[in-house]
Amino acid sequence: PAAPPGSLSGSPTEFPPNVPSHVHAPVRKKAKRSVGASYSENVDRSISGEAQSKERFVETVQGVSSARAEYRRAGEEARGSNPRQSEPHLDTSTFALSGDSAHNQAMVHWSGHNSSVILILTKLNDFNLGAVTESSLWRSTDYGSTYTKLNDKVGSRTVLMYLYVCPTNKRKIMMLSDPEVESAVLISSDEGASFDKHPINFNILSLLFHPAQEDWILAYSHDSKLYSSMDFGRKWQLVHDNVMPGRFYWYDYVDPIFELVHDPLLSEGSHDLLAPRCTEGNRQYLFPGHVDTNSLVVQDEYVFTQVTKSGRASYFVSYMRESFKRMKLPKYCLPKDMHIISTDEKQVFAAVQEWNQNNTYSLYISDSPGVYFILSLENLRTNRGPAGNLLVDFYKVEGINGMYLANKLVDYHIKTFITYNKGQTWALLPAPSTDVAGNNLDCILPFCSLHLHLEMSENPYTSGPITSKKSVPGIIVATGNIGTELSSTNLGMFITSDAGNSWRQIFDEEHNIWFLDNGGALLAVLHAATPIRHFRRKKWDRHSFSLAPLYVDGVLMEPESDNHIITFFGHFSHRSEWQLIKIDYKGLFNRRCMDGDYQTWYLHNKGELCVMGEKQIYMKRRPGNRCMLAQDYSRIYSSEPCLCTAYDFECDYGWERQADGKCSPAFWFNPNGAAKSCSSSQSFLNSTGYRKVLSNNCKEAGRNVYSPRREPCRPRAPRGLRLSTSQGELSAAVGSNVTFTVYLDDGDSLRTSIQLDFGDGIKITYSNLSRTDDGIKHIYRTTGIYRVTASAENSQGSDSSTLFLHITSPVERVYLSAPIVAIRGKEANLTAVVWPSHPRTLTFFWWFDNSSEPIITLEGSISYTFQKEGKNKVTVQVASGSTVMQDSKVITVKEFFRSLLLSFSPALDEHNPDIPEWREDIGRVVSGVPVDQLLVSLYPGLPTTAELFILPDEHTSSEHNRRSEEALERISDIFVTALNQGLVQFELKTDIRIIVYMTQQTLAPLVDSNSIHSGSAMLMLLSVVFVGVAAFFIYKFKRKIPWIHVQTEDSHEKEPEVISTVGQNDSMSKVKLSEFPSQKELMEKELEARTRGIYNLPIIMFYAVSKAAVVEVLGAFVKVKVEISLVINSLLQVKAIQDLTQVKSV
């Protein structure tokens, strides 16, 4: 067929509204009247790969006259008198479907099998409303002489939409009503004599009948659901929802197979193939990825599908419903698109668009299982139909084995080529020697030749531009032209009677051609835009079939029948009724043919009698005899096999035909590759570079030169060991079942042991490669990157293959640990903390401020230098497989700052959920005021710790930096004093107050002070004065106290240090999060501190005294140089203190 029945590429197949997706697109003419079909030939063709046609229609030409219903019989010239029976004549009768003049669409069915019943459904399709508003059902029981209207039988108010006929029992008919009025099916088992109505609760868009079971039907609804019925539509059950339109088939004569619609909520590209007994529990994942949209094709014994991964398409085939195998095209074909043209004779013809082709395709032919493909013809002409479907100029000649026609692009010209050996050799068509008028044509090959149009007719009631018939071998009638290339102008009709060896022109205008009398006669009707009333038959006698000119919409006849009746459909004018003209052409013949009425002819290819490996002699009727052919007479008189030649064989996969006709290996192919059959036997069939053309019947004489040779399996070292996963993925989820597959290109697979090291400490060994056919399954329990190694070894040598498998688990949470303040021009340490931990399997993307490109690392930490003061936003993205998560922080960058490490009273740990939001809120509470000069950052984990940052005024100029640093020192001293005295606290909850301390520099009270009450600034001042005087007294007399004197010598006149996570110069120590003690160590230190009466506690905010009062009071002590913090720090560092009572007394 010119239009490929199956596309694996998901090419667009959109159709007009209310027309099923599997219906041929309409042929547009000038009027809005059309006629459709559901006759037996179309139904039979559709069961191999398409759903049944609902409606086939063409639009016709507007007429000018009116007509009335009539019935009459006419002779050859329609004079009304009975002609003599010895002269060729026609018997005609006309019937008008009265009352349906407004109906502009029709569907016609002839039951066939010598049945006299014809059904016609006419409809008024209101194109403005986009709906059918009226319908009429007509039935004839006398081959179309008269019709009866059946509207009362189906319901006078019922609007019928579609007519279906069971392909295996044409007496069974199903009709669908308009769901807008009444959703129901009408079923007849007696060719429409009676109907039963069955309501349904869904709207049927298309039907697919079972190829063998007459009562089994699949129905596709408007809401993408697939239903099945086992009693011819009386009861329905849901098979599945979300099914792709037109991608459902009967799979194994029991179950359907279908493609699911992509659901974007599930995953990108999630397409699957399902059968009704398939569940998630028993589903097998057969392909290295998800099936592409609109790629499922089921045709005869083959199932095809396509998977695209990393921008490259792979194609898979299942033959005889067995396991899927990858289709093998030549290595550097690199297909962009593939369409299945034919699966006749148990092999696949495919049109493939290669990487360097744009408007053309190449023809590839497979072996019987449909796996290994070879090139037959390059640059086939293609075009798109009205619905966007791909049409390939490729035609199979009926009745002659191995004979095909194709249009090929050659040097920017489209030329027609013919093959007699299934694509092994192609040749141009010879042009006729004279035109239709007898004038000589000087058309010499290869400069001039005959070119034919090979498109398939989109209207089932017309013949299309080319016609051949199985019962008439050797005869082809086609539309074409003579010249250097195919043209759409100056067209004529050409015929061959010797299978394309010679041609002659019969008309200089386009005609529709039909075969009559089992091929014994030809009927030609002018393809015209004006009304006609004549047609011709072979020898092209002219016959009238209507008194008034008729716009012919189509011709219907029963194929392979002895009744010699054809029916013309048409109208006299745009507003007239449908005219049905019955023509009985039996009067064209005078008797039945006898043995003496036939002669023989030899099938040949330019004089070569051996065609497809045999000499065939056919019978045909002698010219001039007007006898009727018997339906069952044999066309083939005799057949004799020939000796095989090189062209009875095609080059095997990986081999190419050379100029001398011999096959030699392609540059990319190793002919000494592994013999796969050696895995199960002691010998194998070794290819000679040739494989016999399927259905070729030649015989090899003596020693087989071309056929594969059986050779013993010799010991060979393993070579070309390949290791992969069944899905082709190099990553898997932790805990999932990973299946590894091992392939060996060359070697003695029966005697080669295979060892697989999974990389996690587990190894497995197999005695030979055949034991790994089903794959090797393994489960990884932890995340990581594993080196998986396969080793093959035998007595002749060894080989190995390695892959690195990423085992991941989904990232649940990401936290960016970073200082909220950094020094300009100095490195800052940033860490991405991931839950759960993913060693060596993550990729980190670091985005800084407005950078256009990220910094990519495999580690979760990075050092970065900020060059600009102000607020800088940092974002880290963590990628694990297809999962990406991120976290962001704003870092304030300054020239200098001061910071204090803080701890809190233990009650805060009991209320710490350890989440970023909680830490941010506590930080704001601790800082106490919305001032940019004070920032507090809490660290994750327990016990709760934090860092207080004291920043300079952002308006400070560079010349005042020194003065600003001194101010920060004074403010820092004030905070140290306040923190050491427990003056910074906040209320967490009612009756729960949290005190903030200096970490590792603070004398904490023995008990938590949750009940401290507010006091005035004066009361606080007196307390501070008291402590200050005591400290001053001790300081002045410290040299007279031995245990104090020892310590002060080590720290004489030393200012207290402030430690920050980010140093201000190179000599300053940097405290990283990783340097903090673990939670266990902190707990041990805290218990030790509690035993000694010392609390080593966390963070923040001033007690309920105004900030101004605190600064005023504490500033007074700074001015008199009372170094309270130094004294307290000295006390903490005295190692000689053993008794707590001494500390208290001091």
From TrEMBL:
Q: How does it sit in the membrane?
A: Single-pass type I membrane protein
Where would you find this protein in the cell? Membrane
Membrane-crossing segments per the record: 1017-1035
PROSITE patterns per UniProt: PKD (PS50093)
Q: So what family is this one in?
A: Belongs to the VPS10-related sortilin family. SORCS subfamily.
Residue stretches of biased makeup (Basic and acidic residues):
69-79
Instruction: List keywords of the entry alphabetically.
Output: Glycoprotein, Membrane, Repeat, Signal, Transmembrane, Transmembrane helix
Q: Where is the composition biased (Low complexity)?
A: 1-12
Name the chain's protein.
PKD domain-containing protein
Residue stretches making up the PKD domain = 747-814
Q: Which GO terms describe its cellular component?
A: membrane
| Pfam families with a match to the protein in the record | PKD, Sortilin-Vps10, Sortilin_C
Location of the region described as Disordered in the Swiss-Prot/TrEMBL record: 1-97
